[in-house]
């Protein structure tokens, strides 16, 4: 996990411990995909995983003050919290058919992206869009349409009513400026 991503999640966890409702929203947004994946792999049922995830965040709201950033990373602590909640549901027998035996819960692979990877991807996307905003409008629009919209250079040139070579030059120069901007931000 990048230092910035870890700091953001740690800060949200610490604000949550003081009762900040917005911090709970932030923690949820940053971690729900990963934690849901853990619950789903253990419980084997989407509805059960949703119920377990709800339990995780309800208990987190009450117990956020127990998080110690000196002892564990926030995502590791939350993943353990989610795993334990899902395993507890298995042990109490409150789970519908389709779940895995409790003994198999520790062996289930988690193919979902790690929450820290999602945070890093979000930071990179934010940096890319920030750098795109520094380009002139024609270049920025052309790069966005080509790389995010899937349009060809020919389609873009026709839409902008410019020669194909001009469009290619705008994008090539824009990508060079984008690269410089991104390298400065690393």
TrEMBL record:
PANTHER family in the record: RNA POLYMERASE ECF-TYPE SIGMA FACTO, RNA POLYMERASE SIGMA FACTOR SIGZ
Domain RNA polymerase sigma factor 70 region 4 type: 126-178
Protein name per its UniProtKB record: Sigma-70 family RNA polymerase sigma factor
Pfam families: Sigma70_r2, Sigma70_r4_2
Keywords linked to the UniProt accession: Sigma factor, Transcription, Transcription regulation
Record domain RNA polymerase sigma-70 region: where: 34-92
Family of the protein in this entry: Belongs to the sigma-70 factor family. ECF subfamily.
């Amino acid at each position: 996990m990048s230092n910035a991503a870890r700091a953001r999640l740690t800060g949200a966890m610490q604000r949550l411990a003081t009762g900040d409702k917005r911090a709970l929203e932030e923690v949820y947004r940053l971690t729900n995909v990963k934690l849901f994946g853990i619950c789903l792999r253990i419980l084997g049922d989407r509805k059960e995983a949703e119920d377990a995830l709800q339990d995780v965040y309800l208990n987190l709201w009450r117990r956020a003050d127990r998080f110690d950033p000196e002892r564990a990373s926030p995502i590791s602590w939350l993943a353990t919290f989610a795993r334990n909640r899902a395993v507890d549901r298995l042990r109490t027998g409150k789970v519908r058919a389709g779940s895995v035996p409790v003994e198999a819960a520790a062996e289930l692979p988690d193919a979902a992206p790690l929450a820290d990877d999602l945070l890093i991807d979000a930071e990179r996307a934010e940096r890319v869009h920030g750098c795109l905003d520094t380009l002139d409008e024609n270049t920025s629009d052309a790069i966005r349409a080509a790389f995010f919209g899937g349009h060809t250079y020919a389609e873009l040139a026709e839409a902008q009513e410019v020669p194909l070579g001009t469009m290619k030059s705008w994008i090539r120069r824009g990508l060079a400026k984008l690269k410089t901007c991104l390298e400065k931000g690393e």
